């Protein structure tokens, strides 16, 4: 299938974003931190590494130019779907734990984060396997998604749902997915007023700014879906989302390896100059 200019740009940005995310995870994993903070550090590494791997997955399994997993049948499709979403939940939980641990200095946040994501798993299963038939595979020529088509394989097959759950619940799920990250990032940003030293303030500002802009845009995107369904979102919104993801990953790198002009202007230090990180 031929790609238009917008799709080619989105594909290129996805490749760049995935490489940046994996690079960020690599350098974060090498940081020297205290034993107490090691769990939070791993959570942050899992977030960026997971994003990079999910991005690479999206390059391979794509209905427009890659492998359409729905053509392999419902069992295979749902297995992959649940593995991907389960992985997404884990890395988001890792990011939230990192941000809240730095804000509170306590590990207790992990317990509440785990409770929230267990709720999200239950909510997701309820959405997918709702009343009226649940998930199914259907071909482009089918009039609708019926249980009789649930196990079919074929060219151009699509994963759909015969559920009678209101479509607006998908938008609510999307909001529940991103708003906890946004809230955690806002709490982390408040550390700017509590930490001492130019370097610490610079790092808090850079990391929180990237995540807040990125997740804030994702929240806006889901509000579009709540207002008028997924089709209400403009075609360029995914492209902007990719761009903000690249921006966020770049800011994390620059938080620890600021350019020379930033070091001179604001008096901030680089990780290269430190034996241990803060």
Radius of gyration, taken over Cα atoms and rounded to an integer in Å: 21 Å
Give the N-terminus to C-terminus distance in angstroms.
50 Å
Secondary structure tally, helices: 8
Number of domains: 2
Strand portion: under 5%
Summarize the helix and strand pattern as letters: HHHHEEHHHH
Counted beta strands: 2
> How much helical structure, as a percent, in the residues?
55-70%
The assembly state of the depicted protein chains is single chain
Main β-sheet, spatial strand arrangement: 1-2
Sheet with most strands:
2 strands, antiparallel
The low-pLDDT segments are: 147-156
Overall average pLDDT:
79
Secondary structure category: mainly alpha
Apparent shape: globular
Description:
The structure is a single chain. This protein is mainly α and 278 residues long. Helices cover 64% and strands 3% of the residues. The chain has helices at residues 5-29, 38-60, 74-104, 109-128, 168-189, 198-228, 237-256, 260-266; strands at residues 135-138, 158-161. The longest helix is centred in the N-terminal third of the chain and has 31 residues, at 74-104. The termini are far apart. The model is unreliable at 147-156 (pLDDT under 50).
Which helices and strands appear, and what pairs or packs with what?
Layout: H1 5-29, H2 38-60, H3 74-104, H4 109-128, E1 135-138, E2 158-161, H5 168-189, H6 198-228, H7 237-256, H8 260-266
């Amino acid at each position: 299938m031929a790609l238009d200019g917008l799709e080619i740009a989105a594909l290129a940005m996805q490749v760049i974003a995935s490489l940046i995310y994996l690079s960020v995870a690599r350098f974060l994993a090498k940081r020297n931190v205290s034993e107490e903070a090691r769990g939070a550090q791993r959570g942050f590494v899992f977030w960026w590494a997971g994003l990079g791997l999910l991005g690479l997955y999206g390059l391979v399994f794509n209905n427009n130019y890659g492998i359409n997993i729905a053509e392999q049948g419902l069992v295979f499709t749902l297995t992959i779907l649940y593995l991907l979403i389960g992985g997404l939940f884990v890395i988001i939980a890792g990011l939230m734990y990192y941000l809240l641990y730095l804000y509170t200095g306590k590990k207790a946040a992990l317990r509440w984060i785990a409770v929230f994501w267990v709720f999200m798993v239950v909510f997701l299963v309820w959405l997918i396997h709702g009343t009226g038939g649940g998930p199914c595979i259907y071909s482009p020529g089918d009039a609708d998604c019926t249980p009789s088509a649930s196990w079919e394989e074929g060219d151009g097959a699509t994963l759909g749902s015969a559920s009678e759950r209101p479509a607006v619940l998908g938008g609510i799920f999307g909001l529940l997915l991103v708003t906890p990250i946004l809230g955690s990032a806002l709490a982390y940003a408040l550390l700017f007023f509590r930490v001492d030293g130019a370097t610490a303030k610079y790092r808090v500002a850079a990391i929180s700014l990237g995540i807040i802009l990125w997740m804030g845009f994702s929240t806006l995107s889901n509000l579009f879906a709540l207002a008028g369904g997924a089709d209400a979102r403009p075609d360029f919104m995914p492209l902007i989302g990719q761009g903000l993801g690249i921006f966020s990953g770049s800011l994390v790198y620059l938080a620890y390896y600021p350019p020379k002009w930033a070091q001179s202007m604001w008096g901030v230090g680089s990780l290269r100059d430190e034996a241990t990180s803060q």
